[in-house]
Fold:
Amino acid sequence: MKVLDLFCGGGGSSFGARAAGAEIVCGIDMWDVATKTFGSNFPNAVVKTSKLEDIDPNQLRDEIGDIDTLMASPECTNHTCAKGSAPRSEESRATALQTIRFAKAFKPKRIIMENVVHMRPWSRYGEMKEALSDLGYQVDEFVLDAADFGVAQNRRRLFVVCSSDGFVSPPKRSRRAKQKIVSQILDDPGTWKTSPLFTERRAQATLERAKRGFNEVGKNTPFLIVYYGSDGAGGWQGVDRPLRTITTVDRFALVEPSPDGHRMRMLQVPELTRAMGFTKRYKLPFGTRRQKVHMLGNGVCPPVMKHIVSSLDT
Structure:
């Protein structure tokens, strides 16, 4: 199975598809840090740093040949509820329609689109699905939670799965995938530098979230607080459950007891990488820490894509 990955980011979708036996022939993204990362993980693939609007899909087909599967994770910022009441960019939303242009040129057997669940109320969502149907695809949509596929994170995402040869069977929760929890992705104590939780410079909102955690789990059990961003569940969570959804900002901090009082640190890139479901084989050699966090938070959990691709190939 040969795969073209549009809006490839750092390669989460492709990493999962490769684990299902696919050959990744090309990845395209407009962010150079993402394409450098993609290239380091898929050295045999053609990698292009460009807007899709600036690429002629027919010329690309001449370059890379036929493909079996087209994957796409269009820009999601202007669909997600995380943007709150801020204005939406219709131009950004419409990048999803580039998938249709490439589908017309390549005519793949399968198309897999991933995005936030909030893409469905988009005014052109029905138009997009209808255009795919007009190209001869059976179009189905599924909302899947990464935690159901052995990922230590609750991450609900929309997958629009298209097939040119009929019915698409719904991807089901893997019976073999045991639920993973936060404590399984954390590095050992002492691996990373920590700072005192209670300091004069610490924001009051942060301390309030920590106090709510103490009230539930006590003073001797580690837990996480939401350090940046809003949270409707008290701003904290235990380490005995999957992580809440990773975003493009440095969101989670670990609070731990110590002999000299409670200490705190942000979750680090290796921990977030594991929480996305990547294996040790995945490389993140490029970008600042902030850029790596952004790339991970904007990515696709490989085990979910592996399961979808495996389901389509049976």
Summary: The chain is about 30% helix and 20% strand. The radius of gyration is 20 Å. The longest helix spans residues 204-217. The chain has a mean pLDDT of 91.
